[in-house]
Every structure is written in C-alpha cells, then in structure tokens.
Amino acid sequence: MSPEATESLKEDIRALIAEIAEKEEIPDDTHFKDLGIDSMMGVEIVAAIERQYRIKIDDAELQEVTTLNKSFELVRNKLAAAA
Questions:
Q1: Cβ proximity of 75 and 9 under 8 Å
Q2: Could you read off the pLDDT of 26-46 as tens digits, one per residue?
Q3: Distances (CA, A) of 14 to 60, 83
Q4: Percentage of the chain with pLDDT > 70?
Q5: 28 in Cβ contact with 79 (< 8 Å)
Q6: What's the half-sphere exposure (Cβ side, CA atoms, 13 Å) at 7?
Q7: CA quadruple 74, 76, 81, 83: dihedral positive or negative?
Q8: Which of 81, 63, 79, 75 is nearest to 16 (CA)?
C-alpha cells in the first residue's frame, strides 16, 4: 500500500469514527473511552468498518479497536491479507 493510500485509509477511518461518535476530532492515540465512545458506539464503528472495507473483524479482535491507530492497523492488516 502506497504512503498516500495508507494516509487516505487512515483519514477515511478517522472520518467514519468521528461521524459515529459525533466528534470534531479523533486523535490518533486517544483511547475511545476517553472520547466518550461507549460500547454501543464501538459496535457501530466496527459494523461500519466491516461494511466499508468488506472485511470481518472477529470477536477476539474487538479489543484491538480502542484507538484510531489500533483500528487503522487492524484494517490495514486485514486488507493486506486479503490482497
């Protein structure tokens, strides 16, 4: 994945999370709990990511979806594995 595509993917995920959480900013490493994102929003975020990128996030991987950077890495790795 090119650096441009990587950055674009990260910003797309940031926008998706910001929309669901109704937040102006989603910092890279701030824990979702600290942004007021509860477990129901977390489920909504995961479902939106799965739809958007046509990937499956297993229940065991849900604990990784706690910050923007961790969510991005999970998606990037799944897309790379599928390629």
A1: yes
A2: 999 999 999 999 989 999 999
A3: 22, 22
A4: 100
A5: no
A6: 3
A7: positive
A8: 75
